[in-house]
Amino acid sequence: MTHRSYLIASLAQTMSEAFSAPARSGSPLLGGALGHMPLFDGGDAGAQIQAELKKIEDGIWKKTEKRLEEVKAGIKVKDYDAELAALEKEHTEVKTQLTEVQTQLGRLDVTGGGKGSERKSAGQLLVESKGFDTAKQGERFVVGTEVKALSSAAGSAGVMVTQPQRLGIYEQPEEPHIRDLFSQGQTSNSSLVFPVRKTLTNAAAMVAELAQKPESDMTFEDKTFPVRKIAHFVKLSDEILADAPAIQSYVDTQLIEGLKDVEDVQLLKGNGVGQNLTGVYTVAPAYNRTTAGDSLIDVYRRAMTQLRLAKHTPTGLVLNPEDWEKVQLVKGTEGHYIWVNVGTATEPRLWGLPVRDTLALAAGEWLMGNFRRGAQIFDRMDARVEMTNTDQDDFVKNRVTMRAEERLALVIYDASAFVKNAPSA
């Protein structure tokens, strides 16, 4: 092979690898920074974004073809390495722009990885914040951070609904919470007003041509769902500031989990009085299909039918840990466990429904319903952690005050989408 032929083949192969079709995952030429990042990533972006990316790709292809023609025609390429370096820089800029677009579309999380990437915890965000170094130096300080995937600033995906992460291989969360079952959104108001259906008369029927159509009727009433705050604080020796991993762990396991424990109670059994939310268990209709001789497993299956008869599809079951234990310990005639494989961790489900066991419900109490459509959580402020040594006499006593709080509302669109069992006294 002549030097010219080798040069043409080398250049063609390099360009092909660097700027290949959308299915390719990146070129070795461009290094780790761009590896695994396709230039033209099709699929879930809008048509307008797709078109703009296609224009960029077509433009680069034209430049590549022009260079190949110059080589074939014997035109000397002044600096082969410089040309490739320029293309690499251009590709880097395109990749950066694409990353920004993907972030705004909610395709990337705050860590810069895909949606399956792990989000930073509250403790990690706190110890990585700018003010934390000032705190360690013993100066007066106030430092805080808000636990959310992205900011709520204009152009950010932080205003989008954040759904629970779905894992390909089931991994038991450290502490599953009731929030995971609900649809979630955000609000900037101190309260939300929604029309709630009171009655429905469905008069739909088969009608002959030109005949009078029957009239259905439904009535609504506007209901206000206030935003409420959950908060607590602790005082610690400032010596712990020298141990960032300890601070991170304390925030995640104590402060944030403390908020979530109270949140569980409010989402289920809040009575709507004072600063309390109105929980779904509080307003849910009672189970009415009691049958003599039914086991707990039978009861839960009949509850599903009660919801279906009310034209709702259940999406979750919440019960007390003792009742969940009774279900899991059911054995067949040969002594084997029916619902669980004790040697493996499996997602807690019953009759196909995700199960959450919680101390927010007493033994014998349970709630089933369509958590996705019957109600929705609106976050006014995601869990926020703040730390200061300016509270009261903290500074002179070498203490820090750490506070965690969140603000949220629970909108119940249709109480009939749930059914509960309240055991008799």
UniProtKB/TrEMBL annotation:
It is found in: Virion. Keywords: Coiled coil. InterPro entries: Phage_capsid, Phage_capsid-like_C. NCBIfam families: major_cap_HK97. The lineage of its organism: Bacteria, Thermotogati, Deinococcota, Deinococci, Deinococcales. Residues 168-420 form the Phage capsid-like C-terminal domain. Its main location: virion. The keyword Coiled coil applies. This is Putative phage phi-C31 gp36 major capsid-like protein. Residues 77-104 form a coiled coil.
